[in-house]
Design brief:
single chain, 416 residues, mainly alpha, two-stranded antiparallel ribbon, 76% helix, 1% strand, transmembrane, transmembrane helix, WaaL-like, membrane
Length: 416
């Protein structure tokens, strides 16, 4: 029987709270504390094993360090490297944690608990504002004053990162449903939480996350049909899923408008928005910012190179606001060239293949979330992105080692 209130579980809980609910400096202090504990309990054999299992992401980090040698703006380059130090930090942290018999579902439960608190708090804040403003219609709750960025600002999180965090909680809840051997009441609770979290993502209006949510739920329904051979029940769920999803999309005002923006939308004031056209121009300008196809411009010169192209392509708003490329693959191509981009794609494929090999459906869905979100966002640039990604990649990949430890313990007990 594995205890719930263990030292390791408390560390995970503190990490989740500090990342999601507090400012970056507190999360950084928690990470430093976890690294210190890991160094105290350092074990070379465990270090070597974690190193070998995560070689591609560590090689990628080394490439970024090397790029400092030819980048012009060392100061900005060092700031970017500082954010990415979570990668070697995770190597040390999971050198310690991978040796511990940590129950996976305990970690998922703690994460879901923190996400639930965050979403309830955010809704409490916007509902309080809604009541304070004496709104005349409930439909106004889904306008810009209480949805999209206003909702994310309640805990100072960009909507992309907030929705990405919630997506992972939904993945865990779907796993709870698949493995649930208890009463139907638990399944009903999990379903209610999934619906609530899904509605929250719709209200955040993060289009890429809504698309990923659709894909993840669809994959889980297909997985259910194949494994349970419940064709009729699966077909009914599939139809209901599409009907409900479309109904929600059409009734959450700000989200409906944001999807209309993709194809071009003109407001009654005459203001026209076409996000697809804007993204295409932005990506075209960004892709042409690379001055060295093989090794790139260096990690510190990415933004300056992008701004030069924004000016050339007459993209005033991206130039004025120092927009990144809004595409992680292009971003790394500009900074690290084809070599860096190739290593980045390989590290994603490496984890994808590991999760396929070990039939880890959760890990597979996590890689899908990261890979697709990276198409429209530079989530590896910011603390809230890279810390979240690196931490879960190392943890999900270390789970196989935890299973081996558990199996060994069972065998040893049997011998006794």
């Amino acid at each position: 029987m594995i205890k719930f209130f263990t030292k390791e579980n408390i560390l995970f809980f503190l990490f989740f709270i500090s990342l999601i609910l507090f400012k970056n400096d507190l999360n950084s202090k928690v990470i430093i504390g976890m690294v210190a504990i890991s160094l105290y309990y350092f074990n070379y054999n465990s270090f070597k094993e974690v190193l070998l299992k995560n070689t591609p992401i560590l090689i990628f980090f080394v490439l970024i360090l090397i790029s400092l040698c030819y980048t012009s703006d060392i100061k900005i380059g060092l700031k970017r490297v500082e954010r990415l130090t979570i990668i070697p930090s995770c190597l040390l942290i999971f050198t310690y944690l991978s040796r511990k018999n940590i129950k996976r579902k305990h970690i998922y439960f703690l994460y879901i608990l923190v996400i639930l608190f965050a979403t309830l708090y955010s809704h409490f804040k916007v509902i309080s504002l809604f009541i304070e403003n004496k709104e005349t219609s409930l439909r106004h709750f889904f306008n810009l004053n209480y949805s999209y960025k206003a909702l994310g600002n309640t805990i100072n999180l960009h909507t992309t990162y907030y929705s990405m965090y919630i997506l992972l909680a939904i993945v865990f809840l779907l796993d709870f449903i698949r493995s649930n051997k208890r009463t139907i009441h638990f399944t009903a609770l999990y379903v209610c939480l999934i619906i609530y979290f899904s509605l929250f993502i719709f209200q955040l209006s993060a289009r890429i996350s809504i698309g990923i949510l659709y894909l993840i739920v669809l994959l889980n329904i297909i997985h259910f049909i194949i494994n349970k051979k419940q064709l009729l029940k699966g077909a009914i769920v599939l139809v209901l899923f599409h009907i409900i999803g479309f109904s929600i999309l059409m009734n959450v005002g700000v989200t409906k408008y944001r999807f209309q923006h993709l194809l071009g939308f003109t407001y009654y004031t005459g203001y026209t928005v076409n996000d697809t056209n804007h993204k295409t121009k932005l990506w075209t300008a960004a892709a042409s910012a690379n001055n060295n196809i093989l090794i790139g411009n260096g990690i510190g010169d990415i933004q300056q190179s992008l701004n030069e192209q924004y000016e050339k392509y007459k993209l005033e708003k991206p130039l004025k606001n120092d927009y990144n490329s809004h595409n992680q693959y292009i971003e790394f191509y500009v900074g690290l060239g084809i070599i860096g981009l190739g290593v980045f794609i390989y590290l994603l494929f490496n984890y994808f293949w590991i999760f396929i090999k070990f039939k880890d459906f959760i890990g597979l869905q996590f890689i899908i979330i990261v890979t697709i979100t990276s198409i429209t966002e530079c989530i590896w640039n910011r603390h809230h992105g890279i810390v979240f990604i690196a931490f879960w990649l190392f943890y999900l990949n270390s789970y196989q080692n935890q299973k081996a430890i558990l199996n060994k313990a069972v065998v040893d007990n049997t011998k006794l």
